[in-house]
Design brief:
Layout: E1 9-16, H1 18-21, H2 29-40, E2 45-52, H3 56-69, E3 74-78, H4 89-95, E4 99-100, H5 102-112, E5 126-129, E6 132-137, H6 141-149, E7 150-151, E8 154-155, H7 161-167
Parallel strand pairs: 1-2, 1-3, 3-6
Antiparallel strand pairs: 4-5, 5-6, 7-8
Length: 190
């Protein structure tokens, strides 16, 4: 193991909600993400968090800014992934993508199906833009934690995030194994 300090990581958090962005209610997605990631990662984290309405052009613009201008290594969105007419986060995410990463969405639905049959209505996607991984997560804090952590019988998606970030040229992410054990092949471990 390398004794050097952990790499700094910049994480963009984007909560997509008409009502939270208008101040009708308090956003719960970003606090849930910060809480989980702060426990899961050993790396020092710099946050860029935003709450915006369900508008496809606005979501795409925010994603481009988080990647191209703010230079986030990882961007996580929450909300706007259902079948309702205003749910356009997946469309905005795909519009800014260089490469789709369909396994993340497939795994999130597998986890959520253990809890609710309506998980098949979820349309979360993950993509790579430049050297940044962007993942759409559910909107509910409990669902966010379940999809990131997984269940005893179904691995969470975050186990694959550090190695994916390695492969696209990002910082080396170290996880606290009591929260999430990252998977890397032996040849990729420091």
């Amino acid at each position: 193991m390398n004794d050097a300090p952990f790499d700094r990581v910049k994480i963009g958090l984007l909560s997509v909600s008409d009502r939270a962005s208008a101040g009708v209610y308090e956003d719960k997605g970003i606090p849930a993400l910060k809480d989980w990631l702060s426990r899961a990662l050993k790396n020092p984290i710099e946050w860029d968090a935003r709450v915006i309405p369900d508008e496809q052009d606005g979501i795409a613009h925010a994603l481009r800014e988080l990647v191209d201008v703010a230079h986030c290594h990882l961007v996580l969105t929450t909300g706007g992934t259902g079948p309702a007419p205003r749910d356009v986060t997946p469309e905005a995410t795909l519009a800014v993508a260089d490469k789709p990463m369909p396994g993340f969405g497939e795994q999130m639905r597998q986890i959520s199906l253990r809890f609710v049959p309506t998980a098949i209505l979820s349309r979360q996607v993950a993509v790579i833009r430049k050297s940044t991984l962007i993942i759409n997560l559910p909107g509910q804090p409990k669902s966010i934690a379940e999809t990131l952590s997984g269940l005893p019988e179904v691995p969470g998606i975050f186990a694959a995030v550090p190695y994916c970030v390695d492969l696209i040229g990002g910082p080396y992410l170290e996880t606290d194994e009591s929260v999430c054990k990252a998977f890397r092949p032996k040849s990729a471990k420091r």
